[in-house]
Amino acid sequence: MAFRSAFPMLACDDLQRSLEFYRDALGFQETYRFEEGGVTTFVALRLGEGSLIGLGVVPEGGSGIHGLAQRPISGRFFELCVYCDDVDSSVEELAALGHPVLVAPTDTPWGERIAYVADPDGHPVMVTAEKA
């Protein structure tokens, strides 16, 4: 058995707010959009050459095709890591856009500078770069 790639998909409370974060603030590019009755319910995004993420709307109490409940969200079961050139300036820009900083930029023992911000649904997003 061989798998080729992974495509994480997030259930969002407010798809437009999530697009503003992932597309507009982090620089993901929209690659696909699905609408039902004129309402966008799913968007696929790409960052760079191969990083993909899907954002979808699931109504309160709703479930996915698999039948498991996806709403309401309980806890934070998702964390995304995005690489950038400058953690400090990137986090400063995200904070200026109103995204909460969960952990201020700090150096790690494994050779990266990291920080955490929250996406519009409260998921932690690690902003990281290799230390110069």
UniProtKB/TrEMBL annotation:
<dbReference type="Pfam" id="PF00903">
    <property type="entry name" value="Glyoxalase"/>
</dbReference>
<keyword id="KW-0223">Dioxygenase</keyword>
<dbReference type="GO" id="GO:0051213">
    <property type="term" value="F:dioxygenase activity"/>
</dbReference>
<keyword id="KW-0479">Metal-binding</keyword>
<dbReference type="InterPro" id="IPR037523">
    <property type="entry name" value="VOC_core"/>
</dbReference>
<dbReference type="GO" id="GO:0004493">
    <property type="term" value="F:methylmalonyl-CoA epimerase activity"/>
</dbReference>
<feature type="domain" description="VOC">
    <location>
        <begin position="4"/>
        <end position="130"/>
    </location>
</feature>
<dbReference type="InterPro" id="IPR004360">
    <property type="entry name" value="Glyas_Fos-R_dOase_dom"/>
</dbReference>
<dbReference type="InterPro" id="IPR051785">
    <property type="entry name" value="MMCE/EMCE_epimerase"/>
</dbReference>
<protein>
    <submittedName>
        <fullName>Glyoxalase/bleomycin resistance/dioxygenase family protein</fullName>
    </submittedName>
</protein>
<keyword id="KW-0560">Oxidoreductase</keyword>
<dbReference type="GO" id="GO:0046872">
    <property type="term" value="F:metal ion binding"/>
</dbReference>
<dbReference type="InterPro" id="IPR029068">
    <property type="entry name" value="Glyas_Bleomycin-R_OHBP_Dase"/>
</dbReference>
<dbReference type="GO" id="GO:0046491">
    <property type="term" value="P:L-methylmalonyl-CoA metabolic process"/>
</dbReference>
